[in-house]
Amino acid sequence: MEDRNRNDQNTDDKNMDGKKKALILGGSGALSGALAELAKKEYEVWAVTRGNRPLPKGIHGMKADRDDEDLQQIIQAHISQVDVVFDCICMNAEHANRDWEIFSQMTNRLVVVSTDSVYDPRYKRTPQGEEGVFLDISDESVRDYATEKRRMEVAFERKIKEEPKGLAVTIFRPGHLYGKGLLLGCYPEESRKTDLAERMKAGEILRLVAGGIYLIHPVYVRDLAKTMLSCVDNERTYRRIFCIGGPEAFENRHYYQVLADLLGVELKIEEVALEGYVEAHPEFAGHLNHRIYDLSALRETGVWMPNTSLEEGLKEVL
After folding, report:
1. pLDDT tens track for 139-155
2. In the chain, which ranges are E strands?
3. Closest CA to 28 of 53, 8, 9
4. Are 219 and 244 contacting, i.e. CB atoms less than 8 angstroms apart?
5. Which terminus of the chain is more solvent-facing, meaning fewer CB atoms within 10 Å of its CB: N or C?
6. Residue 266 to residue 200: CA distance in whole angstroms
7. What is the dihedral sign for C-alpha 141, 189, 53, 25?
């Protein structure tokens, strides 16, 4: 009964032109911006941002920090019911619990972005499915990006178990995300560099740990956004977590070769010794393993699957 009432309110809250309504937490970032651009074809789109960057044309903005105490009041002063909420900046258990509290009153549909970093890199499978060995989150003093994202997932899993007829949550775990608005580079020591293309054009040698031999399965930012949109009304994706990657997996060094080819330069690589590297640079532990995913569970739901090749995606970025 509650879901039916909520959906009736959503219908009453629609525009006269029949467009549904979507709320995005984010909206000016690489993923959230791509999502907003695509979503506005089907939805009236509202976005919560801190107002530091412009929103895509046609998006209704609300200025707030997601940690503001009055976030719910700010949102509901503009819009009371939506057909779906996309949370692109859900970073920890506190965010997950607050999402449940606030958005359960506005919608029955929530789509969230997590990360493949939630897996313990020492035990990752090749390819990795949704089930696996996850990071140990028992030590509350450890508050890094990966452990906090895993705590976020666990918080949603707990809420779903406690309230199985509550929010229909779908969580996506992308690995390396690339595209407009994101820095080039996917692997240490040439990951997310502001000047990577310029240095390659200048003939500089790139330093890649173990020569870049580990496998990667990147997803183009617009592709992830399209899959997120395609899952909204797909009941087979409700209350589930999915790995997601692009149409192809390859060695990390292939990424740099494609980039070099597009730039019209020779790729020069210096191999950095793998032995002792993780111990010296624990922040890169999640990169120094194969990062490819079994996408069969996602594919079987019938959602739109990412199809942009690395060459197409990097060409658009450049």
Report:
1. 999 999 999 999 999 99
2. 20-25, 43-49, 60-63, 84-87, 109-113, 168-174, 177-178, 184-187, 190-193, 206-209, 215-216, 219-220, 240-244, 250-251, 269-272
3. 53
4. yes
5. N
6. 8
7. negative
What is the Cα–Cα distance from 156 to 167, expressed in whole angstroms? 10
pLDDT tens digits, residue range 196-238? 999 999 999 999 999 999 999 999 999 999 999 999 999 999 9
pTM: 0.92
Phi and psi at residue 113, to the nearest 5°: -105, 125
Structure tokens at 67: 């940690």
Count CB atoms within 10 A of the CB of residue 113. 26
Taking a C-beta distance cutoff of 8 angstroms, is the pair 173, 188 a contact? no
Amino acid at 133: V
Two structure tokens written together for 277: 């590297």
- Which has the closest alpha carbon to 299: 125, 130, 168, 88? 130
Where b means 16+ CB within 10 Å and e means fewer, 161-180 reads: eeeeebbbbbbbbbbbbbbe
Q: Are 87 and 114 in contact (CB under 8 A)?
A: no
- Cβ pair 68, 5 in contact under 8 A: no
Among the listed residues 43, 5, 2, 3, the one whose alpha carbon sits nearest the alpha carbon of residue 24: 43
Strands 184-187 and 190-193: antiparallel
CA distance 120 to 135: 5
Which residue shows structure tokens 């994101």? 182
CA angle, residues 24, 25, 28, in degrees to nearest 5: 85
